[in-house]
Design brief:
about 425 residues; four-stranded antiparallel β-sheet; four-stranded mixed β-sheet; EC 2.4.2.4; Transferase, Pyrimidine Nucleoside Phosphorylase, Chain A, domain 3; Aldehyde Oxidoreductase, domain 3; binds uracil; Pyrimidine Nucleoside Phosphorylase, Chain A, domain 2; 17 helices
Length: about 425
């Protein structure tokens, strides 16, 4: 079928067959389908949706648009986690080494931050010498020898998604459940995973701001992944407040280092990290149930083996040897660290979590366009969980900045993003649901 006939079929609410979807994706990849045609199909899908069978066909065609990895040399289950993105979400930095320490292989292909959400790759790149974009040989070597490698996506994994996402981004068609599903899963399927665990964020710092939409995305991701042959489960987790007490790049690495070495652990972050680790161990067949898996994950954290795996991964990818012995020695520091205080007494009762992410963008630690550089040193620390009692002038965060102007701007933004009220309210649970 011609591209315009494929667009017409979907525009009119009819089902596309897999061969037509495959031919459109081939044209998307080789450039023979124009940008206008891609945008038109994206908009038609945005309004008409897709059946699960269509979404599976789109996902598989996008997976097959480039290289598809496999891991025949590994004698361990290959499992990864993907998060739909949030603020203070540094889970991957702890989860990959915990899972590896428990016996999984974790080839974690991560993204950069965009807008208010942070990106795992930017965080890892704040470690001097760390090769976030290794060649395939080094990537495979590190996954084989250490058990985990957190790296960036190379151009030849699901290249159709790169072009499709770029066009969706500028045509207001990102927020479509089947398109998000195919975009995320095509890349994970191309990484050759045996199983996948998803962290679908829900709240005012996430893509999906209400539980119904988040559950809908989680269900779509799980059903399409299983339809495409990859066992998958999903947790829906709260993003109505930053997950860690830090937001930024180097500051989130320090937070993760403290978590791994036991110096300090944010409790909601710990709950999500261990729950996802348990999902990974069960789906990889290394534990019979989530209780057993949870105990194994916790002991990998407590006995230092997860920290050891993180250290070995960093060193194997070109970073400092024994990074965790003194992470602050290696990381860039912002020249100014200024306190932001509460302007009234009461309780922290809510966050504009997106606003907290945008504070990091104001500081230069996030980006508004994919090509923007990021400042690894800046960010926020000391963010307080919902429910915390504060007095007037109690610190509500520390601002790590380059200039006094940034401090002034971010103090005002922060105060607008942290709600303090007379009466305490309980934070919602951090794990809101499960699919799979
Ligand atoms: N993340 C992706 O990788 N793709 C989407 O479409 C949305 C979020």
């Amino acid at each position: 079928m011609l591209p315009q006939e494929i667009i017409r079929t979907k525009r009119d609410g009819n089902e596309l067959d897999p061969a037509d979807i495959a031919s459109f994706v081939r044209g998307l990849t080789d450039g023979s389908v124009s940008e206008g045609q891609v945008a038109a199909l994206a908009m038609a899908i945005f309004f008409q949706g897709m059946s699960r069978a269509e979404a599976v066909a789109l996902t598989l065609s996008m997976r097959d648009s480039g290289e598809v990895l496999s891991w025949p040399e590994l004698d361990r289950p290959v499992v990864d986690k993907h998060s739909t993105g949030g603020v203070g979400d540094n889970v991957s930095l702890m989860l990959a080494p915990i899972a590896a320490a428990c016996g999984l292989a974790v080839p974690m292909i991560s993204g950069r931050g965009l807008g208010h959400t942070g990106g795992t790759l930017d965080k890892m790149e704040s470690i001097p010498g760390y090769t976030a974009m290794p060649d395939n040989a080094l990537f495979r070597k590190v996954v084989g020898s250490v058990g985990c490698a957190i790296i960036g996506q190379t151009g030849n994994l699901a290249p159709a998604d790169k072009r499709f996402y770029g066009i969706r981004d500028v045509t207001a068609t990102v927020e479509s459940v089947p398109l998000i599903t195919a975009s995320i899963l095509s890349k994970k399927l191309a990484a050759g995973l045996g199983a996948l665990v998803l962290d679908v964020k829900c709240g005012n710092g996430a893509f999906m701001d209400n539980p119904e939409r988040a559950q809908e995305l989680a269900r779509s991701l799980v059903e399409v992944a299983i339809g495409a042959g990859m066992p998958t489960s999903a947790l829906v987790t709260d993003m109505n407040q930053p997950l860690a007490s830090a937001a930024g790049n180097a500051v989130e690495v320090i937070n993760a280092a403290d978590f791994l070495t036991g110096k300090a652990r944010d409790s909601r972050l710990q709950e999500v990290t261990l729950a996802l680790a348990a999902e990974m161990l069960v789906s990889g067949g290394l534990a019979a149930n989530s209780d057993e898996a949870f105990v194994r994950a916790l002991s990998a954290l407590e006995d230092g083996s997860a920290a050891d795996h993180f250290n070995r991964m960093v060193a194997a990818l070109g970073g400092p040897l024994d990074f965790l012995a003194d992470p602050e020695k290696h990381l860039q520091k912002a020249p100014l660290v200024a306190v932001c205080t509460a302007q009234r007494e009461g309780y922290v009762t809510g966050y504009d979590t997106r606003g907290i992410g945008l504070c990091v963008v104001t500081l230069g630690g996030g980006r508004t366009r994919p090509s923007d550089p990021v400042d690894h040193a800046v960010g926020l620390t000391g963010l307080l969980p919902i429910g915390t009692r504060v007095e007037k002038d109690t610190p509500i965060a520390m601002v790590h900045a380059r200039t006094e102007d940034q401090v002034t701007m971010v103090r005002a933004q922060l105060r607008g993003a942290v709600q303090i009220s007379e009466a305490a309210t309980a934070a919602s649970a951090v794990i809101l649901g499960r699919q799979g």
